[in-house]
Specification:
Elements lengths: L3 H10 L12 E6 L4 E5 L12 H11 L5 E7 L10 H10 L5 E5 L5 E6 H4 L11
InterPro entries: APOBEC/CMP_deaminase_Zn-bd (IPR016192), CMP_dCMP_dom (IPR002125), Cyt/Deoxycyt_deaminase (IPR050202), Cyt_deam_tetra (IPR006262), Cytidine_deaminase-like (IPR016193)
Keywords: Hydrolase, Metal-binding, Zinc
Pfam families: dCMP_cyt_deam_1
Length: about 130
């Protein structure tokens, strides 16, 4: 596989801590500097306290000093595409424009779905909405 973003999402997925759901998710984002940042889901016995893979990747990007998402890949499992939850769509929106491409891949790296952020989060509220 020659796609570094997909490879990073798949590698992150392998490190997910999904003790309860057994649903592994990895995410990788490419920032404005071309650097890839990855994250995995981390569950918690107090279910709502877990962290999504996308949030982990965004935190890594922010820690590195970057502030702009250029592309996203999410690698999940299950029977269909693992699209970002509503909260993660809004987190991505904070650092990405409406045309940013979000690719959803299966555990083998095959692309299942490609959407723009605007398609996943139409009429979104973002930083510029605050004036």
């Amino acid at each position: 596989m020659a796609d570094a973003l997909i490879e990073a999402a798949l590698a992150a997925r392998q490190h997910a801590y999904a003790r309860y759901s057994k649903f592994l998710v990895g995410a990788a984002i490419r920032c404005e500097r071309g650097v890839i940042h990855a994250g995995c889901n981390v569950e918690n016995a107090a279910y709502p306290q877990g962290v999504c893979a996308e949030a982990g990747a965004i935190s890594s990007m922010i820690l590195s000093g970057s502030r702009q998402i250029e592309e996203v890949v999410i690698a999940g499992g299950g029977t269909g595409p693992c699209t970002p939850c509503g909260g993660c769509r809004q987190k991505i929106r904070e650092f990405a424009g409406p045309d940013v491409r979000i690719r959803i891949v299966d555990p083998d790296g095959r692309t299942l779905l490609v959407r723009s952020l605007a398609e996943l989060l139409p009429d979104s509220f973002g930083p510029e909405s605050l004036g």
